[in-house]
Design goal:
Keywords: S-adenosyl-L-methionine, Transferase. Helix content is 40%, strand content 13%. It is an alpha/beta fold. It has one domain: 3-Layer(aba) Sandwich (Rossmann fold). It has an 8-stranded mixed β-sheet, with helices on both faces. Helix 1 packs antiparallel against helix 2 and helix 3 crosses helix 6.
Length: 320
């Protein structure tokens, strides 16, 4: 197993060497091929590789690789958001989201996060904030279209161009154009209003290193409402070469509820926590929203592959 793990890490290092020499990370045949190979190499979860215990050299490579992945992901979203926003005026860009290569992954991730939210909250959220929404706010779109038809989504991004592209995607949709709001700001500068959201989603690439990630979480803890839900993206096993890891120790001031590690082609792990000091029975400011209704579609535990349940999901009662 050690030899096999060393071989996999060597493959990742080789791919990193090739990617780091690229002149541009915008979508192209070579860029798409290399990142496709990287994702395929990092997908297996049946490994005991722990990136936090590797050599400093490998850790530095991983940190740089995550930044390269984030840059390439941004270019990919810009590329397809521009294409969709350029469709004829009589076409709704949201009807053509399947041209985005990872759209099906977002459908699966959105369903998973909705199930987790339903499991840990008694009421449908009235307002959700998504921090780091980017030029293709697919999580907000998927949740709004398929799971939360009466919820308003406030999307925060530091990049004004990203928000312009994202706004263009939903502007022709009679429903989402009214329920998707975009804010151009650094989340660390956002203070007033964060306590108005029933749930806050933090994108995987907000906080590209541990220090920045913890700083963002600490800011949200300071300004979110007691009892509000925090949903974060993390990574597990080899997938941690692609995205930052969120540890339970990073969530001071929150009750950690669940960490879920997918074993399919959904790359991100999902972490869900609740701001201490509130109740799951009420929304922000003590208000009660509509109740989540029982659903025959797959609840989060029904999604679990029983033979992998121990690996995939960890549940917690509280954080000391």
């Amino acid at each position: 197993m050690a030899c096999e793990n060393n071989l996999i890490v060597k493959q990742i290092i080789d791919l990193y060497d090739q990617i780091s020499k690229l002149e541009c990370l915008k979508p192209s045949k070579n860029v798409d091929t290399l990142f496709g190979q990287l994702v395929s190499t990092c997908l297996p979860t049946d490994t005991n590789i722990d990136v936090t215990k590797m050599s400093d050299e490998v850790k530095d490579m991983r940190s740089n690789l995550i930044k390269l992945c984030g840059e390439a992901e941004g270019y990919l979203e810009q590329h397809f958001s521009t294409i969709l926003g350029s469709l004829p005026e009589d076409q709704n860009p949201l009807d053509h989201l399947n041209i985005f290569p990872y759209y099906n992954n977002y459908l699966k991730l959105g369903k998973l996060e909705f199930d987790l939210l339903s499991q840990h909250s008694s009421h449908v959220p009235n307002k959700i904030a998504f921090v780091g929404s980017g030029p293709m706010p697919l999580t907000s779109i998927v949740l709004a279209k398929f799971h939360l038809p009466n919820t308003t989504f406030h999307n925060f991004d530091i990049d004004s161009h990203a928000n312009t592209l994202a706004s263009s995607l939903v502007s022709r949709d009679p429903d989402l154009s009214k329920r998707m709001i975009f804010h151009t700001t650094d989340v660390l500068n956002a203070t007033e209003g964060l306590d108005q959201y029933d749930a806050v989603f933090l994108a995987a690439l907000v906080g590209m290193d541990k220090e920045a990630k913890v700083k963002a979480i600490e800011h949200l803890e300071k300004h979110m409402a007691p009892g509000a839900i925090l949903m974060l993206r993390s990574a597990h096993a080899l997938r941690a070469f692609l995205y930052p890891i969120v540890d339970s120790s990073d969530l001071k001031g929150f009750q950690l509820l669940t960490i879920y590690h997918p074993t399919d082609d959904v790359v991100n792990s999902v972490v869900i926590a609740r701001k201490l000091g509130g109740s799951s029975m009420t929304g922000v400011n003590g208000t009660r929203g509509c109740m989540f209704m029982p659903c025959n579609c797959s609840k989060v535990h029904a999604i679990m592959n029983n033979r992998c349940k121990k690996l995939m999901i960890e549940e917690f009662s509280a954080i000391e």
